[in-house]
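User: Hey, quick favor. My workstation is busy. Could you predict this chain's structure for me?
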Amino acid sequence: MYGSARLTLPVARPGMSHAHHGLLFAGAIGAFCLNKIIASEVGIAAHLLAIMGDGTCGWSWLLVRSLFRGPSAPPQKWPLLLVVAMVASGAALRFGDAGNATILRMAGNTESLISSALLLLAAIEPLRGIRDDLPRAERRFRIGFAASYATVLIVAVLLVNGAPANSVAGQFGGSIKVICAFVALAGMGFAIWYRSRHPVPERAGPKRRNQVASDLGLGDRILRVLQAKDVLEHADLKVAELARRVGEPEYKVTQCITGALGFRNFNRMANHFRVAEAKRRLTDPHLAHLPVLTIALDCGFGSIGPFNRAFKAETGITPTHFRKTQGSGRAA
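Assistant: No problem, here it is.
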C-alpha cells in the first residue's frame, strides 16, 4: 500500500560526561553555603569560601552547556576561560589593595558583568537547542529546566539583591539564598540523572554512516506499522501512537524517523506515505468519481489545504493537476 524508505544511520559518538561539571558546581554551592553560615567564625578562610562560591554561576553555566549540547558539539576553551576570569576578578576584589580603589572598582564591575551574563546564558541555553524534530519528552525537559532555573534566579538574585533592609527579603536574604542554592543543587542532580538516561538527540548529519542492526530493525517495524490501512487514515495521528504500536519509547521512534528513515520530522514522514496513497487513489479508474477532497480526507488529511501543500511538496504539482495528467477521468 505505501512505499518504503531507505535506511541510513549515524555512528554514535561517545557522550561527554557531566560528572566533573556537577562536582565543580556542587563544590561551589557548598562553599557558598558555608560562607553564609559560618563566615564570622572562620576569619580569613571566609574569603576563600567566598571566592569559591563566586564561581557558582560560572560552573552552573558550564554544567548546563554540557547537559544541553550533544556529544558532537566541538570542544571550546573560551567558556572555561571566562569562568576563570570571573573567579579571578572576585579574588582580586577580596584580596586587592584597599588603597587602589580604581583597580578594585574595575574588578568588581568585571565580576558583576560576567556573572550576570553567565546566569542569563545558563537560563536560555536549554531553549536555544529546541527544534521541530526533538522528541516531546526532550522538549518538556528543556522547557521545564529553563523555567525552574529562571524561577530560582528570580528569587535568589532579583528579589533578594537590592531589597529594602526592613523587607522580608532584606532581613532573610542570606537564608533565602542558601535555600535557593540547595534547590538548585537538587535540580541539577536530577538533570544529570535524567540526561544520563536520555542523551541529547543528535540532528541527523548529511553523510552516510554505518548502519546498526537494532535501528534498522526499528525502522522496518515502523514501516510495517505505516502499511496498516487504519494507521495513516487518522488525521490526528501522533508519534506517541506510533511508538505505542511498535513498543518503543517515543524518543527512540523520533530518533529513528529523523536518523535512520531520513525524514525531517514525524509529520513529514506521515505526509510522505499519505501522499503516496493519495497518488495511487488519484490514478485508480475505479475511484475517478471521488472528489479530491474525499481522497484527501480518506488518506488522513484534515482538510484540502494541508493536503494540497503536502502533495505539491512531494510531487511539485497540485493533486488536481496530477489527476488530470495521469488520466483517471475526474479533476475536481
